[in-house]
Design goal:
With 272 residues, this protein is an alpha/beta fold. It is 32% helix and 18% strand.
Length: 272
């Protein structure tokens, strides 16, 4: 199954970023009166359940940690789903420098394992990023990334928080030499449409940069909750995590109702 728009799910293991779980929902109640019990009425939406009910054969899990991989893999196998796992990672020039100035030079990438050997690489990279480069979040510099990366990984450049986004769309100033760590055919840029005011100009910049440097571009959708009606609970969750309030959430590009499975389905089926 090929997707017109790639669904990139994020789970609750990416702390503060998603309200989707990786577990199975509770079984259907045997008695009619049991349907009103809390355990059947109140439970978080599961990525596994969403994929099963929508007849999907595979799903992409892009998390900020590898902590949820085992649960995702076991539950995906039970549901006869193919799991494609990616680790969202922060890259910078020198992770030994730990100050506010260094944070401004960070870029995000997603490393996707092609196979079991690729997953082993992800484990090593995640360990080094957490042990040696931690500064608020795990980070890794390009030298260590080069020593640990392999042909078993795909490097995905996310639409938001990429070096293009962080350079205010000025692609002439973008010199991400860490991309040379990977084979050109293993570097993929992604674009998204979430009804944000800067989405279209950013898409144009990404496509211009990628075509000018012979990189592949795909359409994708970051999915943090199931339906648009879940936007308020999601925003409340985010504000609690960030110690902010709904009137001033300070959540950058997350203030849109389109980061949901419902929106992805419409885009993938061409109904939106």
């Amino acid at each position: 199954m090929d997707y017109k728009v790639y669904p990139f799910f994020k789970s609750h293991f990416s702390l503060g970023r998603s309200i989707l779980t990786l577990g199975d929902p509770p079984a259907e109640p045997k008695k009619e009166e049991d349907k009103l019990k809390d355990e059947y009425l109140i439970h978080p939406d599961s990525i596994i359940d969403i994929c099963k009910k929508n007849n999907m054969e595979k799903f992409f899990l892009i998390d900020d940690t590898i902590s949820g991989f085992l649960e995702a893999k076991l539950n995906a196998e039970k549901a006869d789903l193919q799991l494609i796992f990616g680790l969202r990672l922060t890259v910078l020039d020198d992770c030994s420098i730990k100050d506010e100035a260094s944070k401004k030079k960070e870029s995000k990438i997603v490393l996707i394992a092609k196979n079991a050997a690729g997953y082993n690489n992800l484990v090593k990279i995640a360990s080094v990023a957490a042990k040696d480069g931690f500064y608020y979040i795990p980070r890794i510099d390009k030298i260590k990334l080069k020593s640990l990366a392999s042909d078993n990984l795909v490097c995905l450049i996310p639409f938001y928080d990429s070096f293009i986004y962080n350079n205010n769309f000025k692609i002439s100033q973008c010199c991400p030499d860490f991309l040379n760590v990977f084979n050109k055919e293993d570097v993929v840029f992604s674009t998204e449409d979430n009804d944000m005011p800067f989405d279209i100009p950013l898409v144009n910049c990404v496509e211009q940069y990628a075509s000018g440097n012979n990189y592949k571009v795909i359409k994708s959708k970051s999915i943090y909750y199931k339906d648009r009606k879940d936007f308020l609970p999601y925003m409340t969750f985010r504000c609690i995590h960030n110690r902010t309030i709904l009137s001033r959430p300070n959540l950058d590009h997350f203030c849109s109702k389109e980061f949901c499975f419902e929106s992805w389905k419409e885009q993938n089926e061409g109904t939106k």
